[in-house]
C-alpha cells in the first residue's frame, strides 16, 4: 500500500480484488495455511472441526484476519466478504484435476511415484532460492513473510496452469487418425515461432512426450487471445480486460 515499508498481503489482495474466482482461491489458501498452523501447534481435532474460514481465534488465524480486515475496509457492496463463505466448486481447478487424473491411468508405479513427488514440490520449500529469483535483495520495498507465502503459492499455481494449458496445446497438435490436416501446423502457431523452432516442432520435438517451449508460448498466446476459434481457454481462464496469468 502507499507509504508502506514492506509489500504485504493487503497489496496482493488489492491487486486481485476484481477477479472473484482467483481471489476466492487465494482466500482458501490462506485459510488452509492457518489450518495447517493449528495442526502444527497441536490444537485438538474437535477445535479444528468447529473453526470456519473467517472466524477469529487470535494469532492462529492471522492470515484470515488480515484478509478479512482488509476486505472489510475496501468492500463497499459486501460481495468480497461473501467469498469467505463461498463453497462453490472451482470448475477450472476441478477440470484441471480431472485431466491430471486421466493422465495417471496410463502410468506405471515408477512414473506415478515421480508424478506424485513432483506435485508435492513448491516454491515455499525453496524460499531462499525463490527470493533470489525475485531479486528481493535489490528491492527498496521487500515482501514480508505472509506476502512471500502468497507469492510462492501464486507462482506454483501459475506453473500448474501453464503446464496444463501446454499439455492441451500438445494434445491439440498431435496427429489424429483420419484427419487429412493433422500433419500441418497452423499458420498462427508458426507466426509466433522462429523458423528453427517451427522446423523442430515438425520434426523430432513433435514426437516427444515432453512439453516443449513452443507449446508453452502457444498456450500463453491462446490464453491472451480474446476472440475466434483459436481461443479455447477464453471462458475458463481469462479475466475481463487485461489477462492475468496467476493461479
Give an overview of the whole structure.
The chain has twelve helices and two strands, in the order E-H-H-H-H-H-H-H-E-H-H-H-H-H. Strands 1-2 form a two-stranded parallel ribbon. The longest helix is centred in the middle third of the chain and has 29 residues, at 145-173. The chain is mostly helical and 247 residues long. The chain starts with 5 loop residues before the first strand and ends in a 10-residue tail after the last helix. The protein is globular, with a radius of gyration of 21 Å. Helices cover 56% and strands 2% of the residues.
SSE inventory with pairings:
Layout: E1 6-7, H1 9-15, H2 20-40, H3 45-50, H4 62-74, H5 91-104, H6 109-119, H7 127-134, E2 142-143, H8 145-173, H9 187-191, H10 195-202, H11 213-224, H12 234-237
Helix pairs in contact: 1-4, 2-4, 8-11
- Number of DSSP E strands: 2
Q: What's the helix-strand series? A: EHHHHHHHEHHHHH
DSSP strand content: under 5%
Radius of gyration: 21 Å
Key traits:
56% helix; 247 residues; two-stranded parallel ribbon; globular; mainly alpha
